[in-house]
Amino acid sequence: MYNFFMKFYEQLEKLLTQTNHKTKIEEFKDFYQKYKNGECSFEEGYEKKLSEKPSYESFCKVVPPQDVPKRKNLTTKEGQVYLLHAIAHIEYSAIDLALDAAYRFSGLPKQYYDDWLEVADDEVNHFLMLEELLNEVGGHYGEVEVHNALFEAMQRTSHSLLERMAVVPRYLEANGLDATPAILKKLEKLPKSEMLERIIKALHVIVDEEVSHVQKGDRWFSYACEKEGKEKDVYFEIIDRYYPLWLGKKKELNVEARREAGFTCNELKVMAHKEVC
Ligand SMILES: [Fe+2]
Ligand SMILES: [Fe+2]
Fold this sequence. Notes:
Elements: E1 6-7, H1 8-17, H2 21-36, E2 40-41, H3 77-104, H4 110-136, H5 149-156, H6 161-189, H7 194-228, H8 234-242, H9 255-260, H10 265-272
Parallel strand pairs: 1-2
One fe (ii) ion is lined by residues 91, 94, 122-123, 126, 206, 210.
C-alpha cells in the first residue's frame, strides 16, 4: 500500500536543495500542511548533508556584500526594484535558514520543529508579499546581484545548535529588527505614492512578525545553554568570534522589539554602550 507518511529529514533536504523557487514554495506548503496534520515521520539516524552552495545560486548572481547595487532614489521604479529585491532576497534566504534549523539538528522536542517550520512559513509569506510588489514595479527575483552572508552564517554554524541559535536568529534576525524601522523612517519621509504605501505596509508586517522569530531563537538558545551547562552570556563570546567588530559599530537598537524577543537590559546595555532600559 502507498505510504502517505512523509519522511521529515528527507523531505526537508529536498526543499533545501530545490533550485526552482516557485516549486520550492509549492512543495513547502504541501509538506507543512502534512506536517501539521501529523503525517510526517522523523527518521532515526538520518545522515545530514552539508549545504555546499545556496539554493538560489542557479538563478541569482552572488557577489560580495559591498558589490550589491544600492537602492538609489526610492521614488523611482529602479530604486524600488533594488530595495524590494534586496529585502525579498533576505526573506528568501531566511526560508532556507528556517528549514535548515529544522533539518540540521535531531532529537529535539517537537516544539522545536513546530517553531522553525512556522518561521519558514512566515518567511515564505514575506517573500511572496515582496515578490508581488517587485513584479508590479517591473522587476523579478534573480535579476539583481545578491550576497550570501546569511547562507555563510548557516554553513558555519551547522555543527552546533547553540551557535546556530546565537548567530542566526539572535544576531542576524535581531539586526533586522533594528534595520527595518530605519528603512521605514526613510520611506515615510518621501512624497506619498500608492506603491510606497504598500511597501511600507509590507515592511510593518515583516518587522512585527520577525519579533517572534527572534523570540523562538531566544527560546532554543536558552535551551542549548542549559543542555551544555553554559550561562546565557556565552552569547557575547560566540558573536565576538563570528563577527569580531560587531560591538564597535554604533547603531540605533530597536529596544522595544528586542526586549519582547527576549534580550535582557544588560545585554542591550553592552550592545548600545549605554543604559537603554
Ligand atoms: Fe521574514
Ligand atoms: Fe525571520
